[in-house]
Amino acid sequence: MSEHHVMPLKTYFKVAGGLVLLTILTVVFHEMKMGALAGPVAFLIAAVKASLVLLYFMHLKYDNMTNRVIFGSGFFFLILLFAFSYVDIWTRIKSFSTL
Amino acid sequence: MGTASTNPNVNYLTEFSGIKSWLFSLDHKRIGLMYMIAILFFFLVGGIMAMLIRLELFSPGPTLFSADTYNQVLTYHGAIMVFMVIVPGIPAILGNFFLPLQIGAADVAFPRLNLASWYVFMFGAILAFTTLFTTKIDTGWTFYTPYSIKTGTAVITIVLAAFIMGMSSILTGLNFIVTTHKLRAPGMSMFDMPLFVWSLYSTAIIQVIATPVLGITLLLLVAERVLGIGIFDPKLGGDPVLFQHFFWFYSHPAVYIMILPAMGIISELISAFSRKTIFGYKAIAFSSLGIAAVSFIVWGHHMFVSGQSEIAGVIFSFITMLVGVPTAIKMFNWLATLYKGSVSFESPMLYALGFLFLFAIGGVTGIMLATLGVDVHFHDTYFVVAHFHYVMVGGTLMAIMGGFYYWFPKMFGKMYNEGLARLTFVLIFIGFNVTFFPQFILGAMGMPRRYFDYIPAYESLNKISTIGSWMIAAGFFLALYVIIRGIISGPKAPANPWGAKTLEWQTSSPPPHFNFDKKPTVTGGPYDY
Amino acid sequence: MTTNHSATAHHHSHHFDSAQHEYESDKEGIWLFMVTEILMFGGLFVAYAIFHQIYPEMFAEGAKQLSWKMGFFNTLVLIASSLTMALGIYYNQINKSNKAFWNLIATLVLAGIFLVVKYFEYASKFETGFLPGKFLNPETVGATSQNLGMYFGLYFCMTGLHGLHVVIGMILISWLAYRTKRGDFNANYYTPVEGVGIFWHIVDLIWIFLFPLLYLVG
């Protein structure tokens, strides 16, 4: 079956190396104590790492559009859950009352 | 494929025999029937609970049982009807049976997974029923915190049961999505699929996406009870309203899990019994997807008086109005299909027309309740109870009944008694309105829901409502008789008794083990009358 | 699905047109299942994010109690296990069953190391009294936040559910290793390896987010 894409071995090691470097980077930034920026930076790096795993280890880069849409939809609906719940939390607890 | 089916007397019912041939069957048709038997039983139990509730409310004061017992009966009625009857109902029974047939496939994509989801469902259901013999729960089917954290009843067991049944629902949905994508007959594009398939497809998307959130919510409730982690417990700095957000993120879309497949059945029935191409095929197909999409961002309308912020309430109220758009698109397309069609009034069609009438009332009162200011008055009154019964019973159950009668000849290869079937419609339809219409008035008068007692001013309307419930029960028991008698001694059904155009009518009744003797190739649309 | 033990061909189930058709359908099913995993864990992440907003100090206090070095080490372990898992698929794709087998075994070992480290982390939390929810006594551990139990409640729920997935993954990988050894997989048929692989990478993916959230950000 020629439809199956076999990725070169080198790519796997490159991706793994990238993941290790990014993990070290996360810790370095953590030690720098960046205050308010620390959260977003750590999250951004995690997102890059997650994309690497998805695209290469999970072969999503070579998969069909349907599977990409399927997987992306998971994150999309998660954002909906967070966003609409957070509108309530923000305008109720953060603005008025304390729990 | 299907070597055995060259003999016309051999079909999926007769090809294999013995209890094992059912319990280990990978045939989607047999699995559909196994779901049918289980769900009919659960419907009977949930229905008996409903009758008990109405009996208790026949007159003010303690009539039958104590307030505590009433709370338990109410909880089981809700939990059984939602998690074990209406949510799995149409997809698991009629969907399992007819999705592959309607797209010309030999089975669903993952037959073993299909059987596994039946076992998972049964395991969850049995687990839920064990609580009837230990400590009966009294939280209501919504398990709202903080009461569900504090109450000394078997909340953990029932919550885990709901979690397990949720897994079954996910597996069914997953199976249906892949089946719809991958197993359509040659020549059938997505826009050649029958609208019942479109509705199952939209439902399956909701099942896959919403149910996991219910799963984690229920697990967090268990953690809350066992560990006291405090995220839903105001005493520990948590937020009980957040539980409602999480819960309704699933449970509002779940309302559409219940109604979307019903709408799909109605599309089939209206077209078949008007002998006319469905009006606005694409509009109906896309409105199913539209309802599924909108369903995820309207959940806050269940929480208008729960203490959520005013801004959140206004946003949710506004978005909820959007649901009216795709729903109305469907209504108008069905009506336009009827227009100048050669309409005949066989029992499935009677149920479809009943659906249109009742669902219109249920839908419009839904828009009333979506209006924030109005809902503050109506919330937690019988107006809400009447509204969602008009949608769930008037809508979904009507469609299930219509679908059963429509596909009965295909499922069992027999015909039922048409006269008696029409009588069941008359009993259920009239009984339903007698039961639930007075509840709109009671709600407007201010009668709160979920109480076992009421002031004497509400008595006469409650009596009418209870009497109506007896008519519904008589109708369903008669329907059971019609079905059983049809199976045992009905005359043999032809392959296509209604002259309908969708693929399932092109194979014999009942179908052979692998559905079609020869894989069908699709050249025309599903409604080319 | 039928399994053919010959090294060259794989028979597909009757309701599919071809083995490729079945492969694509199976894969779509696996991706759909992964969506449910994302949304289930996602619920926990949303709860974490919301309460982190409400109680930033309490979360900072909790995060300080965790050893980021252990979390860091475990992150590397899981990355390595993801690599060996990917190689397990790769070698099955090019008909090198033996190499595939040893990569799967390596994945199992790495998963085991992850759990051992996790065990030591849990044990030290139990010893020092940083227990979940109501079992955490703010006075005995000297906590300034009265509801520190919520942080550890979330910590144990999130890592516990993740740990459960690691265990399930190990069972599935053992099954794959057995079948690889038996010679079930080849360039034409390796769907189960790829499916479990996707599951295992999801387990890694979730940890990629758990590590900074629980150990670093506070």
Walk me through the structure.
The complex is a heterotrimer of chains A (99), B (529) and C (218). With 99 residues, chain A is mostly helical. Chain A has helices at residues 9-31, 38-57, 65-94. Chain A folds into two domains: 6-63; 64-99. Chain A contains three helices and no strands. In chain A, α1 (9-31) packs antiparallel against α2. Mean pLDDT of chain B is 94; it is low at 1-5. By secondary structure, chain B is mainly α. In chain B, α3 packs parallel to α14 and α9 (281-294) runs antiparallel to α11 (324-338). Chain B has a single domain (19-506), classed as Cytochrome c oxidase-like, subunit I domain (Cytochrome C Oxidase, Chain A, Up-down Bundle), CATH 1.20.210.10. By secondary structure, chain C is mostly helical. Helix content of chain C is 75%, strand content 0%. Chain C has six helices and no strands. Chain C has helices at 19-54, 56-64, 68-93, 97-128, 148-182, 191-216. The interface between A and B is medium-sized, with 18 and 25 residues.
Note the topology:
The complex is a heterotrimer of chains A (99), B (529) and C (218).
Chain A: H1 9-31, H2 38-57, H3 65-94
Chain B: H1 19-23, H2 28-56, H3 67-102, H4 111-130, H5 147-150, H6 155-182, H7 195-227, H8 240-274, H9 281-294, H10 310-321, H11 324-338, H12 347-370, H13 372-378, H14 382-412, H15 418-445, H16 459-489
Helix pairs in contact in B: 2-3, 2-4, 2-16, 3-6, 3-7, 3-8, 3-14, 4-6, 6-7, 7-8, 7-9, 8-9, 8-11, 8-12, 8-14, 9-11, 12-14, 12-15, 14-15, 15-16
Chain C: H1 19-54, H2 56-64, H3 68-93, H4 97-128, H5 148-182, H6 191-216
Helix pairs in contact in C: 1-2, 1-5, 1-6, 3-4, 3-6, 4-5, 5-6
Q: Distance N terminus to C terminus of chain A?
A: 60 Å
Order of helices and strands of chain C: HHHHHH
What general outline of chain A do the C-alpha atoms trace? flat
The CATH topology label of chain C is Four Helix Bundle (Hemerythrin (Met), subunit A)
Write a brief structural summary.
The complex is a heterotrimer of chains A (99), B (529) and C (218). Chain B has 529 residues and is mainly alpha-helical. Helices cover 67% and strands 0% of the residues of chain B.
Task: List key phrases describing it.
heterotrimer, A: 99 residues, mainly alpha, 2 domains, 74% helix, flat, B: 529 residues, Cytochrome C Oxidase, Chain A, disordered N terminus
